[in-house]
Design brief:
This protein is of the alpha/beta class. It is 14% helix and 24% strand. It has 5 helices and 66 strands. The strands form 5 sheets. The protein has a 33-stranded mixed beta sheet, with no helix packed on it. The protein has a 23-stranded parallel beta sheet, with no helix packed on it. A hairpin with a 6-residue loop joins strand 2 and strand 3 (72-76). The longest helix has 51 residues, at 857-907. It is globular and about 145 Å long.
Length: 969
Amino acid sequence: MGRVQKFSLILLSSLLCILLTATSAEHSRNSYWLLRVKSKFIDSNGLLDDWSSGAHICSWNGIVCSTDETRLEGLVLAGFGLSGIISPELSNLDSLQTLDLSSNSLTGTIPSELGELKYLRELLLFSNYLSGTIPPELGRLKKLKVLRIGDNSLSGEIIPYIGNCTELEILALAFCRLNGSIPTEIGNLKHLKALNLNMNSLTGVIPEEIGRCKKLQNISLAHNMLEEAMPSSLSNLDALQVLNFANNSLSGSIPREFGGLSNLKYLNLLGNKFAGVIPLELNQLNQLETLDLSSNHLSGTINISTTRLQTLKSLILSNNFLSGTIPRDLCLGNSSLEVLFLSQNFFSGPFPSEILGCSLLQELDLSNNSFSGEIPSGIDRLARLRNIALSNNSFSGNIPPQVGNLINLELLLLFQNRLTGRIPKEIGKLQRLQTLYLFENQLSGTIPRELTNCSSLAEIDFFGNHFSGRVPETIGKLQNLVFLLLRQNELSGDIPASLSYCKKLQILVLADNKLTGKLPPTFRFLTELTLITLYNNSLEGPIPESFSLLKKLTSINFSHNRFTGSISPLLGSNSLIKLDLTNNSFTGPIPSSILESRNLMRLRLGRNRLTGNIPSELGQLTGLEILDLSSNDLAGGLDSKLSNLNQLDHLLLRENRLTGNVPLWLGSLRALGELDLSSNNFNGTVPAELGMCSKLIKLSLRDNNLSGHIPQEIGKLTSVNVLNLQKNNLSGPIPSTIQQCKKLYELRLSENFLTGSIPPELGRLSELQEILDLSNNLLSGEIPLSLGNLLKLERINLSFNHLQGQIPSSLAELTSLHRLNLSNNFLQGEVPSSFSRFPASSFTGNKDLCGPPLASCNRLTSSKGKQLSNAAAAGIIVAVVFTSTVVCLAMLYFMLRIWCNWRKVSVSSSDAGGVGQRMEEGRWDYADAEKRNSEYWKMNSMALVSSTEKNISSPVRFFSPEDKGKHGS
């Protein structure tokens, strides 16, 4: 061997030794840092147990080395079930090209140190629980091609430095909490093929610069808050295959230029604000498979033809303003259409026969339009149909029996139409049918037994039809049944015992029918039952004890039937939330076993025959919102433990035999919205504490034995609509604080012993409408003028009080008033003319009232005038008699004096002049005396008559027919 060869061999050996030494050192260094990284992970599955310094790192689980095992190239730990944090010491693995920690449970932030991995090509951290912002240092990764860090809790904005990663091909930041706008630097990513920013909170516009990413094949910006029109530069992306802008706030029209995106296969613009017509240019997209333009503001007709879009499989145009008819060429030629959704538009006319040409159609939704006419018998031409929805239209006629030929049908929705006739027996051939909704039609006849051959049926809803007869005895064959809703029909007979074979049944609704008989004891097998409603039937008998085995029941409504016996079997479920047994004939006490249903929120036991006391155990049902025990035969007082029901909204105890005081603790039930204790035997006072129930809307304490004053605190009930305290022994004034109850709709205080005047403040209750009833009290004073402000009021009853004065003219403003009762008071004056529309009974018992509908005020005045004249006449008669008596006595006196004087003259006749002369003188003496006496009488008679008599006497001289009115005024 030559010297040169030896030297070469030695040199090669030396280089190899150096290389091996360097490789060994590199492996040792990477081993050290990998173990440091591992220390930050929590490896619950033990998948990193083989990471140890004793083994070569290239043999470690999740490690990717170069083919010669000289270099660490990848750390791939996807789906390892790791938790903990991402160690910033990963940056020391500087040869790393792939870092995949996706689909784990890692927390914390993305370390900024990852920006030092200058050879990194793939960074996959998606589907973890990472938080914080995207570190701007990731913009240093010049060789990065794939960045997928979505499905985390990342926040903040998309860093503009992402534009520095010019080799990037896939950028996926979906399902995060990112906000702000899409950076314009996105346009620097010339190699970008896929951009996925779905499910964030991005705002602003889609940047025009996105049109520079000429290699883009997939753009997904769905479920953000992007606005305004789409950039025109999108038409430059001729490599685009997927465009998904669903559920944003984009507006404007759909660009006609989209017709040039010849490679587009998927176009989804649903849930935006696009308006205008569907561009005809979209028919140029001959590779298009899915077109979803639903939930926009599009109008006009359908401008889509499958003769040109022969690859189109899904056409979804629901929830727009489209109208007209279906294009004749929609399904001509070799149509590939499998999904056609046109619901919630303004299409009209008969069922579009053009659709029957879509022979590959699997899903058809024409619901919520104005289609009419009959469902065509040729519907079975769509032999591949799996789902069909024709609901909420105006289809009429029968369900065609040809529906039974659609053997692939899984969902049939025909509800809210005008369909008549029977359910065709052929429907029994639909072995794959899972959902059948026929509710709110006019279907009749019996439910066909053949229906129970549809063994896959899980949901049946026939609500609001006219089905009659029995529930099929073979109903138990539907062993996959989950929902059975037959409410509001005319079904009769017993509930079939075979129903117990439907062991998957969760919801059973048979209410509003004519069912009779007893509940089958076999119901105990329906262990999955969560809701059962049987109200408004004629079911009877006791509840089977086996009902207590149904532990998943959350809602029971057996109201308005004829059930008897104890309610105990219905209280076995600790899941029970609602129990309504109103209007039956249940007897016995309310059982203490009600505690087994601790989650009860609504308990309605009204209108039964329950006896005993209200159990204190009810106070432990602290979630109770409604407690209705009204119209039973319950006695005793209210236990203080009921004060624990601080969620109670409705407390209805009327029409029982409850006694004792109205409890003060009711004021602590701050959520109370309705309190009805009427028609019991409560006594004592109305507690002032009730004023603390600020959410109270209805308060009724009527027909009890309550006494004392209405508390001033009643004014704190500022939300109350109905206040009824009638038929008690309440006294004192009506509190003026009631004016604070601004929302009062109905006020009843009648049949008490209230005194004082009607507070004028009642006129401020502007929402008062149903009635103002203050009748049968001891109220006095005048009717306040302010009541004329109650413009919504329909009824007023102020009868049987001591009210005085005139009816206020302001009441004439109450144009809504249709019942008025002011009878039996002391009112006077004229009834306002606008009240003539009310019957006379509204005003009777007020003797000084006049005017229509009572007697006219003129007649009443004349009658009074006559009475006054008669009284005056009687006074005059007395005065005349008295005066006449005095005059007679005076005349008698003077006549006696004259006679005596005459006697004297006669006796002295011996004087000169003779007898004749003396007689003549005597005649004149008599005449003078008579004259003097007459003047004296006039003077003294005037003096003897009183001034009152003088005034009264004057009408007597002038009482003539034409003056009757004058002197009676």
